[in-house]
Amino acid sequence: MDYEEVAREIIGKQEDTIGMIATRKAEQVENIEVDGEEIVFKEEATIEDIKALMEQFKKIQGQGAVGIARKAVSGLEDDIDINLPEELQPDSE
Question: What's the pLDDT tens digit per position in 23-42?
Answer without folding.
Answer: 999 999 999 998 888 899 99
